[in-house]
Specification:
Helix 6 (127-143) packs across helix 10 (269-291). The chain has 296 residues and is α/β, with parallel strands linked by helices. The chain folds into 2 domains: 5-124 and 274-291, Rossmann fold; 127-265, Dihydrodipicolinate Reductase, domain 2 (2-Layer Sandwich). The strands form 2 sheets. A 6-stranded parallel beta sheet has the order 3-2-1-4-5-6, with helices on both faces. It has a 5-stranded mixed beta sheet with strand order 8-7-9-11-10. Strand 2, helix 2 and strand 3 (53-54) form a beta-alpha-beta unit. The longest helix is centred in the C-terminal third of the chain and has 23 residues, at 269-291. The chain has helices at 14-24, 41-48, 57-64, 77-90, 109-112, 127-143, 161-165, 167-180, 217-231, 269-291, and strands spanning 5-10, 29-35, 53-54, 70-73, 94-97, 121-123, 147-155, 187-194, 202-209, 238-247, 250-257. Helix content is 40%, strand content 23%. It is globular and about 60 Å long.
């Protein structure tokens, strides 16, 4: 399609499959290849939709993925760091990294995507980062943030092998991004896998200790509420579960994320939000490419 940018996905698991469904309805992106390393269910699923596939990983995508300009990496931090990231960069393909590898700068679309338009590799932080950093930033932009702590609670059923393998990277990457993108002087991230049945929606508790205690709570609350509404533009199931409160210099709120159930269950809001953020970032990058004739 002349009016779309061709994209590929590496990693045909749950995240990669859900990404494919989201790309299908994108106005700027064309699903041009699904790459894996075995003939998995995800590869078969992509084939069923007529999507070209390869089981030679990033090498197969580069070799056979004609005119692909953007690639989503939904594998692991180690794979992106050692293989996928460097190889995509060598071939001039923009990488949208959904692992915690963080070769490139952290991207939280609402907060800093405009500053990353020319980056070759952007990192989508983590699911918890995408759900909480906008709120930390909403506080820090009006009152500063001396310290921010987030607790991401996700259903155990929505944590696949990749998520479980990257638990250490999750806490490190999210904590750092709370500081670098969210604007907090010090950040801390905790993840909890909840085994409850039936599975619960993803919930995120956010605590921020403000710097400027003279800023009225109403101003902080307004900033948070505005951010929530903006985030709903690409994550419709994002909502405040507990409205913001302030005790002394500490602001606390709880947000809930219900997934769009494109491929994954609605309770997998943790996977839905990072995928939705990644597609939102790719669409903006694709818009720039299209404006510059990058689909040719």
């Amino acid at each position: 399609m002349a009016d779309k940018i061709k994209v590929g996905v590496i990693g045909p698991g749950n995240i990669g499959s859900d990404l494919m469904y989201k790309i299908f309805r994108s106005k700027n992106l064309e699903m041009a290849m699904m790459a894996g390393i075995v003939e998995s269910e995800g590869i078969k699923r992509a084939k069923g939709f007529g999507v070209p596939t390869t089981i030679e990983g990033v090498d197969g995508l580069i070799k056979d993925g004609e005119d692909i300009k953007i690639v989503f990496d939904a594998t692991s931090a180690a794979a992106h760091l050692k293989f996928n990231g460097p190889k995509l960069k060598e071939n001039g393909i923009v990488a949208i990294d959904l692992t915690p590898a963080a070769i490139g700068p952290y991207c939280v679309p609402l907060v800093n995507l405009d500053k990353l338009a020319d980056e070759q590799d952007i990192n989508m932080v983590t699911c918890g980062g995408q759900a909480t950093i906008p709120i930390v930033y909403a506080v820090s932009r009006v009152a500063g943030a001396e310290y921010a702590e987030i607790i991401a609670c996700i259903s155990s059923k929505s944590a696949g092998p990749g998520t479980r393998a990257n638990m250490d990277e999750f806490t490190e990457t999210t904590s750092k991004a709370i500081e670098v993108v969210g604007g907090a002087d010090k950040g801390k991230a905790i993840i909890v896998l909840n085994p409850a049945e039936p599975p619960l929606m993803m919930t995120n508790t956010i605590h921020v200790r403000v710097k400027d205690k003279k800023v009225p709570f109403k101003k902080i609350e307004k900033s948070i509420l505005e951010m929530v509404e903006e985030l709903k533009s690409y994550v419709p199931g994002y909502q405040l579960r507990v409205p913001p409160t302030m005790d002394g210099d500490r602001v606390t709120t709880i947000v809930q994320v219900e997934g769009q159930a494109d491929f994954l269950p609605a309770y997998s809001g943790n996977l839905d939000i990072i995928n939705s953020a990644a597609v939102a970032a790719a669409e903006k990058i694709a818009e720039k490419m299209l404006a510059e004739g990058g689909n040719k």
